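My main concern about presentation is that the manuscript never shows what a single data entry looks like. In essence, backbone conformation is discretised, so a fold becomes a row of integers matching the chain in length. An entry of this sort, consisting of the sequence and the corresponding backbone structure tokens, reads as follows:
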Amino acid sequence: MILGLTRGWSLTGYTIAAIIILPLFALLLQAAMPDEEVFSHLYDTVLPTYIYNSLMLMLLVGFGSLIIAIPAAWFVARCDFPGRKQFQWLLLLPLAMPAYIVAYVYTDLFDYAGVVQRTLRSVFEWQTPQDYYFPEVRSLGGAAIMLSLVLFPYVYLLARTAFMEQSSSLLHASRIMGCSPWKSFWRLALPMARPALAVGVALVAMETAADFATVSYFAVPTLTTAVYDTWLGYGSLAAAAKLSTIMLLVIFVMVGVERFARRKQKLFQRQSDFNEADRYLLTGWKKFAATGYCSLLLWFAFIWPFAILCQYAFDYFEQSWSAEFFEYSLNSLYIAALVSFICVALSLLLMFIRRISPRSMDSLPSRLSSTGYAIPGTVLAIGVLSPLTLLDFSINDLYQYFGAQGPGLLFTGSVFALVFAFCVRFMAITIGSIENSYKRISPSLDMASITMGQNPKQLLWRVHLPLLKKGIFAGALLVFIESMKELPAALLLRPIGFENLATYVFQYVSDEQLELGALSAIVIVLVGLIPLIYLNRSLEQKS
């Protein structure tokens, strides 16, 4: 710690935090604005349906992700079967696939006019929908399945890590006491992994609440679509802000209830003594079952949808390979790179202040700046638009006061609003990554540097920065990919005439013409594979 840290550093940290959390306060202020007519109409008619669908979707996706991920995580972490090393990282691939693309592919296959139902009608000579029953794809349950297929890797990754970090001696002791492998898993391993599972489900719940494209495509009315429709359909920003606060309340309540439920639970265990010899060797039908389960999961969650995308791109390559494709690709790369740079720079500054400050209050700015990730894109768009619109009007009024022509919509009419929203939403990623790297740097290095006459700037540039390169790179990479994929905020905040790959693909999905946007969708998926490959290498080094 550096006792001579000037208050200017602290002021800088709090200024950054104030800017980052400004959209949240603006949202609450906008929600307090009077708009009784629109909101009362929603309250009396469709609001209960919005809330019910949102809660049910979060619960179903959370439960579905658990059911899918836990067996796969246990197989990969604690069992030995054919393909285990490959499935260790292959099961992360669905994270690179946007959920609305998976939804389109399966709808195209299983809808009434799709290949599956047409084949069934041809084989069994059914004539009308009344002749047979087939589950409705475009439904709440269908949306839950699509989101579960894409989001389960969050739970899988954390569960896998938790299972591998458990002490093998405890599992051996349970076996000596007469427990079968199944009982050891159910009574010991699974309860010890509960904190990691809870974090994974919380992440899945937040991602589900933030999803707009899938539920919009499936015509499932949720709070996310309600915010979008109220804002653009009814033209009421205040009513949309009220719905947004309800959505945030739902997210915080669900996370808070889970934490309250395990408030008295304490878990202590020795550091992992796990080695390869401790894996359960699966033989006979069990090894085929483990390999088959992981294979089917990977097939339905990634390989099949991606293969169909490749087929679409091949069949419609001439129409897809256009000037718009290159323009929107460059737009996506530009925005993602700019957001990554800003998030890394601000996060590095906040974490440096937290590292060297002797005052506990200086750790608050980094914590406040991490709250944006829990805010869905549609909600964040309202919080960003309100203060920026006010700032634009103020600047133009000031120009007019002095008799000059104002610059117009300087902030809300440019990509500034989009970049600002992305930074607010994704700064938690770079803060977490840099914080994790800082934990590996001994405080004695700071003390030695101060003894040698280094000031705070020199300490950051010469000592910390070279040691933080891996954490900075990982955080920047993750923010880059998230910025490429983010859709709701881009749809609402993009300037007129501006498109990126995410909005471009979604327009084709909405028009039932993904075939023409398949090439752009493949680019999004392939770029999304980069951090997964990097993450896999990190996992292999730790294993």
User: Anything to note?
Assistant: Confidence is low (pLDDT under 50) at residues 267-273. DSSP finds 25 helices and two strands in the chain.
